[in-house]
Amino acid sequence: MNSVRLTTLNKNANIRSAASAAIVKGQHFNILRDDVETIETNLATTQAALDVEEAALTTHKLIWLASGGWQANPYSVEFTDIVTIDGSEIVGTSALDIGHVDGALLVASPSSDYVLEFVSAVFIYDYDTAAYTGGADDIVVQIGAVGTQVTVSSAITGADLLEAAGDKILRLGAIATETIPLVGGDLSIAGTALTDPGTAAGVLRVHITYRIHTTQL
Questions:
Q1: Are residues 205 and 116 in the same domain?
Q2: What is the pLDDT of residues 156-174, one digit of tens each?
Q3: pTM of model > 0.85
Q4: Tally of domains within the chain
């Protein structure tokens, strides 16, 4: 915003129409000029503060990646995936089943330059006709390759999820331990295989949130 003193020499300069100008009497000009300069100074100060704030946000903001994850820094990315574990995987003991030592796969291991971190999971059990039985209340989320698995959650009881006679929703966070080793390998859900009820049984849907950290800084 600019103001100029109106004189007989410049009364028509840069004035395109009456709507674009306001005549201020000479005795009021300095007061108006002071007000305008104060506003301009305040605007400049505000803009400088906004620039500082924007720089801070640029440093710390979450970035949504094309890969579908949130990145808070160059070294880790957070993802949320949906995994479905069907009836055969719930009662089975073969590879990729809950009853296998490796468990049912939730997240595949990244390359050797990265490790996984379990953040949380929401388990949605979609009950069908009959309930599973025969569990041991020992189903957990784990990470690692064969022989190196590390438990990263508390155990889930059958009544709270897979042995319920109805739909269940359960949230599970990372185990409340001060130090949790982050090792290479898959994130999986493992425990004692349940017994097939012999008729239509439910499926388990897992909304798992995890981070991938690089080991190469």
A1: yes
A2: 999 999 999 999 999 999 9
A3: no
A4: 2
